[in-house]
Here is the input.
Amino acid sequence: MSKTVLITGATSGIGRATAELFAKQGFRLILCGRRQERLDELKDQLGKQTQVLTLKFDVRDREAVFLAIESLPKEFSQIDILINNAGNAHGLDPIDKGSPDDWEAMLDINVKGLLYMSKAVLPQMVDRKSGHIINIGSTAGKEVYPNGNVYCASKHAVDAINQGMRIDLNAYGIRVGAVNPGLVETEFSDVRFKGDTERATNVYKGFQPLKPEDIADIIHFVVTRPYHVNIADLVVMPTAQASSTIVKKDL
Ligand code: NDP
Ligand code: 8X3
Here is the structure.
């Protein structure tokens, strides 16, 4: 029987590439996001390859998260793999100039949203004593860079939650691990810079950034290891990147 995978943030970037790869591999997919038209498009496209269910909700809305999971029809109700991917950076400002609305968005989505999703899905994994949770962190969860302050804090929180989950769920045989990418060219910078396309494009100029498909490949590798192998914490950067601030660019 094919496994059921729930991916948050499946409408774009890393989540979307992961959904596309997993559909090819025959996983049953629950795809989440807020943009209905993109969810419909994904269902049309990937529904030709595998069973797909889409769920539209904002991960910040605790009640909506729980309702969405409770609403799952029988054939999708057993979630084998949860990919906590939904998230973004909002703004890139020094701490004294940052917007509290941006701070709230990042903490509410990247941290609290991930917690709500996990809390909603975990009871069934605990009951079955099986399951796999993959938390998408970031190099921003391993180091802090100028003006990254609250985004970095949110991803450091993901790092801590990933470790905490692994410890607390150890008794149930549930695998927990994080994939922490460096610079991946997605809609991430468009969101961070609020639609300033030129500024967003510049982030990836002069070097070969990671593609969302590179991260999808890694997530696929992580979930297809034999049960006794848990990739607990993985960091991946473009070859041109040595740290958040050191990127070899040919401009
Ligand atoms: P994208 O902007 O391309 O995708 C973000 C996804 O998250 C979208 O599908 C979006 O869907 C979803 N999302 C955002 N906010 C919410 C919300 N409030 N409720 C539900 N879904 C939401 O960015 P990436 O693919 O790059 O980002 C995916 C993850 O990877 C994030 O956690 C990000 O922090 C992390 N990451 C990204 C890196 C990069 O360089 N790109 C590097 C390291 C980590 P919708 O708008 O439809 O809701
Ligand atoms: C995304 C990578 O360096 O923009 O998490 O924070 S970075």
User: Anything to note?
Assistant: Residues 100-128 form the longest helix (29 residues). The mean pLDDT is 98.
